[in-house]
Amino acid sequence: MVELVPGVGRGSLLQRELLDPSRAVEVGGVYRLDYERALVLTADKWKADAGGIPPFCFLLATARDISGRKVSDPDDDEVLLLRVEGVANLAMERDLLSVREEALRQALVGGRIPTTDDVLGIDPYTKERISFTGLDCRILGTFYEEQLDGEMVLDWGHDVDNFYATATYRVYKPIGDGLSSIASYLKPVADQSVQRVRIGVVRYSSTRRRARAAGHADAAVEINVEDFVGQKTGMFGMTRMGKSNTMKTVTARVFMVSERRRRMGEAPIGQLIFDPQGEYANPNTQDGTEIAAIGPNHVSIYKFGADGSQSHVRPLGINFFDPQQIGAVQAMVAGELADSSSGYVQDFAQASFEDDRSDRRATAYAQRGRLALYASLLKAGFKPPTGYSVLVPVKKELREAIDPPKPAPSDGEEEAKEPLLRLLPNGNGMCAIRAENMIEVVQKVIDLREAGSVAAKEFTDDVRWQSTEPIFTGQSLSSRVRGYRNLIKLNRFHNENTKRDVADEIHEDLVAGRVIIVDLHLGAEAVIKRLSEAIVYRLIAKQTEIFTSGTKPPSIQVVVEEAHNLFDRRKFDKDRSDPWVDLAKEAAKLNIGLVYATQEVTGVAHEVLANTKNWVVAHLNNTREVQELSRFYDFAAHADSIIKAEDKGYVRLKTMSSPFIVPVQIDRYGLEVVNEARAVAGESALVPPPTQGTLL
To answer: CB–CB of 156/659 below 8 Å?
Structure first.
């Protein structure tokens, strides 16, 4: 008896997972094979019985000994994974087509309607011969059995290490659980952390009639959620093609992994979502629910105009006059001035305006620099906190020049009135300067310096003041600059009642494993970009501080919707300090994952794309974007389909643990997914709202 698969018994892993009749149906054989491609011979009947063979269909090929001898000592047991990419010509195809063409020609000349082969005069033998066609397939790799940690596993090789001209390779189409095993395959790695979750079903083509009719349209695709933790994930596609749906599903699944980690005593995973449309924070008609529905115990929302009436909904903004938030203020101001070609802008961005406890002199100059900055903000219309003042070291000579001492009355004169003090000494070399006096004091210092005051020159003789002064005066050397006028648009970020840097508050929530939604749908694009960058800068700084202390940074995921509005490729090309590039480069060691969605592959910096481990690609509408995409993995093979198919949620998926691209119809995000997440977190299920009745 000839073994169907040499050396592969029915009890083997290859047989159970891939070749069992319930998991694969025979569709033909290989008539030409090399290291890269396989040409498969199939027939119309086999294709019909298998529910069709669409483009990009996975096929399995395995050798069979053609001598008829039982193979007792076979070569390596293996199964080749093929992907259908087109049709192939058969050696006798020209002759067979000539026969069919001539029969059709005679039928048409005779005035007959050629509805059947009988009418065409084709005999059964010829009909059978012309039913054979060839399929051109790419060899994706090889499945084989291997021992890993004492257990037999299904291993994978990305190529072919040998092929036989004297062997018959029979070809099967995987279906059902067999197809699911292939589409959900994760290459085994020792000590690999795996959390499998369903993401959708296999979808080969836009047309799915035959797959549904044959019952082959519901093969589940599972992914390892751990692939997304701490890694870069790109989601590409046109608007309304399902990017947000996929991102919400991944976010909910990562939250479940985080809660399981928490229960096991491990550190949870925080998620930071930049939400430009407000669809994560608020219910929408598309999903019928939102990420925030996981519950206020686990989700915090930051947005403009929040009044604090809900503990989990917090105001989005920073107090520009708070020295504790100077890092974020400096980043946002520097970003707003970045388009200026003046040299003071770079000096301002690189200077340190924070107090240094180990260096009193540096702290003194930082305090004076902040004074000039706060005066600039006041000129730009920023409102200070009630009763606001700052402490600045001012030497006696300069203090008396700004606030001249009261002259002694001469004989017969009434005592002079007390002068209105701009500086309020505290007896420790420091002076309090009230908000209403800051502009006047800064201008007075500048005027005194220009008049030759040595004390004023010493007061301003530092890069912190010198780089801030042009912002205050609108004058850089001999040139006029916009200075403080550029800061007017930042006013909407300012919240004089905020007690601390919102980025620090967000980081603390992330370390606690909360899902943080930064609701940006009420902000202008330029403002949103600056705030997002400031938060990311601060996040990187916080994680870097932890990393350099010798401690493993906590796990954090950053989710960016409409990333083309935040990623500026032209800026990346000239400015390597951009936070998104820094995030892509440094995130792995800082334990930060980045999930970004965009319509424009070309709008994403190469540094970000090159570090992207997970790819979710929906419909793109032009060849320029697809050509850029085709530079990665083998997306070039799917290029035409990506442009042609405009089906919502139909994506080509490549994850870090999966060795090949899988075409997937992503499951819809909705209340069912939300309730799964709530259940893992110990929350009760949400009940869908009742449907409205129809009046009769």
So the answer is: yes
